[in-house]
Amino acid sequence: MSMIVSSIGQGLLWAILGIALFLTFRILDFPDMTVEGTFPLGAATAVTAIAHGMDPYTATLLAFVTGAAAGLITGLLYTKGKIPILLAGILVMTACLSVNLRIMGSANVSLLGKQTIFANHFLASLPKYFDSVFVGLVVIVVVTVLLILFLQTNLGQAFIVTGDNRMMARSIGINTDNMTMMGLMVSNGMIGMGGALIAQNNGYADVNMGIGIIVIALASIIIGEVVFGDLTLNQRLIAVTLGSILYRFVLLIVLQLGFSTNDLNLLSAIILAVCLMLPQASKKLHLNHLLKKGVAKYDEN
Length: 301
Description:
It is built from 13 helices and two strands, in the order ααααβαααααβαααα.
C-alpha cells in the first residue's frame, strides 16, 4: 500500500514537468531541450538558497524565476538569434550544467537538517508518503486551473494560434516571437519549480539529476493521450497528470519484477517507445474494431 501511495505522490509531483512540457511540445509546437537544464537549475537554486537559510517557499519561487530566465534565453536565441529550435535548447541546457555547478559549488548539495516545504508540522503529521501526495495535489490543481483560465483569455488564444499556424497568427497581428518567449518562460519556470519541489522531497540536489527528464515528461503526455484518446484541450491537461501517475505505476510494476533502479532511464525510454507505437499498432491490428465487436457480442448475450 505504501508503494502505491508513494507512486501517486511521485506522479503528482512529476506531473508539473509533464504539463510544462505540454505547453511547448503540444500547444506551441516547440521541441524544447532546455528542460534537461532548467530542471536541475531549479533544484540547485532552491536547495542552495534553503541551505543558506532562505525560506523554502521563497526558494521555490526563486527556482521558478531562474527557470523562466533560462527559457527566456532559449526564446531569444531562437527568435532574435535565428538559431534552430533544437540547437537553441541544447545550448542553454549545456550552459546550465556550468551554472548549476557555480550555484551549488559542488556536484551535489544535501538538505539534511534543513527546513523544507515537506517538513512543516501538518505534513509531518500525515502518514508516510502522504506529504508528497498533498503537496503534489495542491500544486497540480493550482497550476492546472490557472492554465485553463489563461488559455481562455485573448492572450491564451493568441498563444494557441501561434502553435497551430505561425503564418496565420502573424497575418492577424499576433507577435509570434513574444508568444514563443512567453511560452518558453512559463514552461521552463514551471519545470524549475518542479525541480525545486522534487529536490526538497528527495532531500538533495545533484548536478546530473536532469538527465533523461525530457523522456519522463514526454511519457506523461503520451501515456495520457494513448489511454484517454480524443479529449478537449482542458481535458488533455488533466490527462497529463493521470498519465504521470500511470507511468509511475508502470515503473513500480517493472521494478517489482526485479529490474534495477539503475535501469530506470532505459525502462523510461522503452515505455515511451511502446506508448508511441501503440496507436499505429492499434490501427494495423484493428484492435478498436475487435474490441467493439467483442462488446457487441457481450451485449447480445
